[in-house]
Amino acid sequence: MVPDGAGADSIRLDAESGGYFAGLAPNLATGALYRYRLDGGDAFPDPASRFQPEGPHGPSEVIDPAPFPWSDTTWRGLRLEGQVIYELHVGGFTPTGSWTAAARELPRLADLGITAVEVMPVADFPGRFGWGYDGVNLFAPTRLYGRPDDFRAFVNQAHRLGLGVLLDVVYNHLGPDGNYLGQFSRGYVTERHLTPWGPAPNYDGADAGPVRELVLANAGYWVSEFHLDGLRLDATHSIYDDSPHHILSEIGRTVRERADGRGTLVFAEDEPERVALALPATRGGKGLDGIWQEDFHHSAIVAAGGKREGYYRPFEGSAAELVAVTRGTLRDPGAIDPPRLVTFLQNHDQIAHSAHGLRLHAVISPGRWRALTAYLLLSPGTPLLFMGQEFAASSPFLFFADHEPKLAALVRRGRAEYLAQFESIADPTMQALLDDPGSSDTFARCVLDPSEAARHPEAVALHRDLLALRRNDSAFSRQQPPRGRAFGPLALALRFAGERNLDRLLLLNLGHDLPLAGETDEVMAPAAGTAWSLVWSSEDPRYGGCGTSVSAREHRLIPAESALVLALERRS
Known about the structure:
Elements: E1 2-3, E2 14-15, E3 21-22, E4 33-37, E5 43-44, E6 60-61, E7 85-88, H1 90-93, H2 99-112, E8 116-119, E9 123-124, E10 137-141, H3 148-160, E11 164-169, H4 181-184, E12 189-195, E13 198-201, H5 208-225, E14 230-233, H6 247-258, E15 265-268, E16 290-292, H7 294-303, H8 319-324, E17 341-344, H9 348-352, H10 366-378, E18 382-386, H11 405-419, H12 423-426, H13 428-433, H14 440-446, H15 452-455, H16 457-472, H17 474-477, E19 483-486, E20 491-496, E21 504-509, E22 514-515, E23 530-537, H18 550-553, E24 557-558, E25 562-570
Parallel strand pairs: 7-8, 7-18, 8-11, 11-14, 14-15, 15-16, 16-17, 17-18
Antiparallel strand pairs: 1-4, 2-3, 4-5, 4-6, 9-10, 12-13, 19-20, 20-21, 21-25, 22-24, 23-25
């Protein structure tokens, strides 16, 4: 170990078993900078550094987590049911782009009805801005947003407000710039498995033990030292492990153990939507808490009028498909309970996987946007909102990453090639217009203006009222799969079981006005001695709607591009 300072003495590390080296540094105080010199050669940052004040290529800093004045001793964590997740990028969430500024926005989210914020990756990475998925210092919160204690203060404030905090972590690869693990050992990666980003982490080959230990220690570190309430695991379909104890199961177990009795949640982003990841080991699963349900998003986007190109091509966007995705994944309907499926209309990937990074409200009609918002927030899955969605933010969200020139050119080309899977973006004219991920202007355009929340009160009211309905009405809050029926290509009914047989009915129509003629099927027919009564309409002027007609109030018609909620009431 080499302290980073004039006149400081080096500290010898002695070999131990398992390829580790250790030594005692009694005079290395909190705040001291240091590196590791390998075999008398070059010196490198600590692979488990708690902070990199000068970035991944600079020295590591000694951090003591103990003095932070936590005030969340009564916080009991999160349970699976009842969650509403809010995904945010700390650097783009506020103009300041810091933990401190982000913490000031948390009361607004709690008031809206959010129950947990999910932070995009924060493991330190090179450059002035980036999404964070090319992190290289797994234990070091990036210096771009503040110091480690600023992150702790953000979590402490969230818990004070009743909000949980989840962290997006990347265990399928490490970034290409600033990753010094290979200097310490070649065993950290394996050529036997390949990811889209290069060799895979070595979870199942020779010397896999220390690699697994590094990742499991990191998962537990966020929970114990930062009091986080769980993790979102990026691209689990690119995590390869043929060992008897899969690393994903071990991550889930480690998070629960390190939480010391607090409730935690671990979700997987898994492209094939393998529901087994969220099943217990007794049912052949990996024991995680849930998976992201991308087919919910894809079906809804196609239904809203999106093009069936690229990965949208297999989806119909039909009313029947929209009914199906409220009951589970299309591949395994009903295989897991709805709360284990994280549903969304927008997230960081899906907005940016387009030519201009436009948000949903900017590319479809206002009526359809309000109707689909109701469909998302009243469906039984665990809904996720992307930052700014609740106030119809005008800023786009594009892919941005600040790299040195040679790598930046490769990233720019790779991004264009990825987007070319969409035939319209493959057009050379569109390719020439794509935003440069390495441009500071690209990043600046993505930064939210929180004052827009006050300027877009209709959008905020829409989300607040729907979340209150979801929270307070047991027909929605119990998150049970609804009975459903399609009325045609673009209209459907979902019936949610209410207490004392007083059910709720969500009518969704993304097409023209649709007359209803005394429907008597099991989805639409009222129980004996009851009648349907309108309790909520997406056409309410408070949400920017054009008003709800008498025909709609008497459920003789579903207005074009709208959603209605009906409640069964006893007849006098």
